[in-house]
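Subject: sequence -> structure tokens, single chain

Hey, anyone have a minute? Need the predicted structure for the following. Not urgent.
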Amino acid sequence: MKFDLFLSICQTEVDGYMPSEKVMLHNFFDQVGFADELGFATAWVAETHLSTETQKQTRQPVIPHFKGEIGLNTDILQLAHKIFARTQRIHVGSAIRNILCNGGAIAHAEAIKTFLALHSLEETESRRLNIGFASGRFEFSNRPYGIRPRNAWEEAAWPVVKNKILHEAVEIFLRLLKSEELSSEDVAAQSLKVADFRKSEDWEKAWAAYQREGGEFSAKNPAGASSAAGELIPLAPRWEFEKLGVIPKEVPLDLLDLTLGSHDPALQMAANQHLPVAVFNLSITPPQVIEETHERMRSHYHPKGGPWQRSHMPRTAMIFLESSVDKARRAAERAWENYWKAMEGTLDPQKVEQAVGNSLYGDVAMVTEQIQQKYHPEDRLMLWFDFNNHDNEAIKWSMREFMDKVAPQLGEGF
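Reply:
Had a minute. Here:
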């Protein structure tokens, strides 16, 4: 079992205390340095774009009751350079880099190539950058960059359309990372079809909107497809560009890992046609979905990545480790109560109880037992110690307790 650290850098009020940005970043680097000393494998950092506080002033605030900023990391590449300069062994990961905003897939591919060119200058460098990537959590982070419905049928089918945009972005992103030269004409065309929709009535709404506006569109249709027969609705490319290549070109990918933040099986398989791409899961992902993903990836993981391993799918785990079980449970309950109040403005005891049950909480013995019951011995855990907690010393105490007393009991085969 591998143990990683997840850091949110979430600047929100906890028990009446709101740290400044400077304090948040000082604590972050202190915890990463301590994690390096303790032997955590990778420091995964949450990523957020644009102020959630400012967004509350708009017509459709997404989290109107949340006070502060969901996260302060907007660029893992800048953070990673500083982390690597201050540590000796720990790897760095993004959880998760939004490749739709801030210029889209082309800009992100070029930025990562530039980072790798600098990071690999030292021939002895062995620490890895793991780019977890997806389409972002909040719509408001993407809309200023043009990621919004362009017509009535895209609006009617927006959740499906957004996933198709991610398909397009992932192909562009991965092919440019490989130093391919391509134009938008070389990228697979995207379209909507009934199988993409969970409910047939949602497809009917999109198809009706498409017909109302003429049923014609300038997108390139896949060979043999017949939109007039209602089989599909073609989507124009989100990014149109002539042949290009990103620089620097002579950049090895040896120190780069890639992890996709999507449960879409088709996208997982499509990504692995280009490069080895692992898969994230959420802490609430049903066990059946996790095992189905492992089974699928054993067959479709890119050959250059070697055999698929369970550690290729990091699993987020909120952890509340205290000196007593009662103290840990109170900490977990308080954290989740604050979270749900901030996200929804109300408190649902059932949601709190369910969230606590999905967490790891207790003393050393109880947390050890919970991990043995919930996880496979070869899993990889992203341990989240700073959830709703600004007490830097308390967080570090829990980190040490875990690595000194829990981790040694979780050897091979438990």
